[in-house]
Amino acid sequence: MKRHALSTRIWHWLNLVCVVVLFMSGLTISNAHRRLYWGDWGFAPEQAWLAVPRFPDWMTIPGYYSLAVARDWHILMAWPFALLLLFMWVAMLVNRHFKRDLVTTRAEWKPGAIWHDVVQHLKLNFDHEGGKFNFLQKLAYGLVLGVFLPMMILTGIAISPGMEPTFGWLVDLLGGRQSARSLHFIFAFALFGFFIVHVLLVLLAGPIGQIRDMITGGRHNEA
Amino acid sequence: MKRRGFLAVIGAGFVAGCNKIAESDAGSHLLGAAEKWHQGAHRFLTDREALAPEYPKSAISPYFRGNGSIDPQNGDYPAQAAEGFANWRLEVRGLVENPMSLSLDNIRKLPQRTQVTRHDCVEGWSAIGEWTGPQLSLILDAAKLKPEAKYIVFRCADNLNGQDYYESVDLIDAYHSQTIVAHRLNGEPLPVKNGAPLRMRIERQLGYKHAKYLTAIEAVASLDDIGDGKGGYWEDRSGYQWYAGI
């Protein structure tokens, strides 16, 4: 049996492209109005909870300031991003990757067990006894797949005025359009934080083998 | 240091690749198509009559931000403003059976709709205000659209960076019940920065569609021969999406 299912590998790499384009074009969109607010409305400094720094051009798509071009990229990539996430969830449920590898057990939530995992991580010991993922991995991948990525889509829908007549309940649930915009930003940076830690741990765990396995699928008990 | 240089090269290469795609024919078609997919999805998911949220008066923002043109100085606009827009006319023309020229008084005497709605700028900010004016559908019905009319074009008095502002919508948004020709904001005549004496409200789309300083409403069969053919000032100038529901 392969270490990574074909569906996981396809999704992983295509999703990476989508998220990188969405994030970098999102930084240009953030540059268009560098303040965040809570509630339904907000437009002036005294209403903002955060003044966002200007992201330099080299971090952004298209690499110079164009809100129109950034929006073109953003709304194009929103489609494959959302449809691929749906595909991944269906695949994970059908091939039991979710139930087998991601669902946590009650025992894993005991403080002692969590502490043990943290210590093993800090010692850079990545051999997991038994299951494919340890608790911290389950938590991280579960949060990303179950909360961060879906929230990007939901908050994105809630920012769109054309969606609001149908999804007004969603906008209310998120606390208003400007709250949804703030959450869109917060979850984007939560994903960025995950990305940094994920890449760092891949580098520490032996990047060549890890990346090779995510391309070819690898073999199961060979970590 | 070497590794950082390597990452910077990858990053720059990625952006350059994206720009190459965007500049290619196929790429720009794809980017344009995405706008159509969103419009299609919105139209599919949302009833053509479904309303944008309306708020209680208590939700109104302390003041209403002006953006784009906020004090036009071109043509006779300053003179018209000085006389309180007493001689302002709104032309209704193009593919209509009965072209009209309406005074502000004519417009104030039509049945009015008042709505407290949220204005979302493409830049990201929002403001809430109370708008009053007749529904555009009343004016279009009085003018009687010819069957070949497909779009409504809004002509504006302001000239921004050397080009006259204009905007356009399809007939679904033109006939939407919250699409009004507003002449009041928060119970007062429109301030100059918000589009005095008349502006459009297109409540299910972003702010740049809500044409200010309105001088004419024009029914057309195609947007190709207007401006640079993309349906609006910002669409022509910067490539903003014509459908601004996202």
**Separation of termini of chain B?**
41 Å
- Name the quaternary structure: heterodimer
**What best-fitting shape of chain A do the alpha-carbon axes yield?**
globular
Order of helices and strands of chain A: HEEHHHHHHH
| The CATH fourth-level homologous superfamily of the largest domain in chain B | Oxidoreductase, molybdopterin-binding domain
Rg of chain B (C-alpha, Å): 20 Å
What is the H level of CATH, i.e. the homologous superfamily of chain A?
Answer: Transmembrane di-heme cytochromes, Chain C
SSE map:
The complex is a heterodimer of chains A (223) and B (246).
Chain A: H1 6-32, E1 35-36, E2 50-51, H2 67-94, H3 97-102, H4 111-122, H5 135-159, H6 164-173, H7 177-204, H8 207-216
Antiparallel strand pairs in A: 1-2
Helix pairs in contact in A: 1-2, 2-5, 5-6, 5-7
Chain B: H1 2-23, H2 25-45, H3 77-82, E1 89-94, E2 100-103, H4 104-109, E3 113-120, E4 126-133, H5 136-143, E5 151-160, E6 163-170, H6 171-174, E7 180-182, E8 184-185, E9 188-189, E10 199-201, E11 214-220, H7 233-238
Parallel strand pairs in B: 1-11
Antiparallel strand pairs in B: 1-2, 3-4, 4-8, 5-6, 5-11, 7-10, 8-9
Output the keywords.
heterodimer, A: 223 residues, mainly alpha, Fumarate Reductase Cytochrome B subunit, 8 helices, globular, B: 246 residues, alpha+beta, Sulfite Oxidase, Chain A, domain 2, 5-stranded mixed β-sheet, 4-stranded antiparallel β-sheet, 7 helices
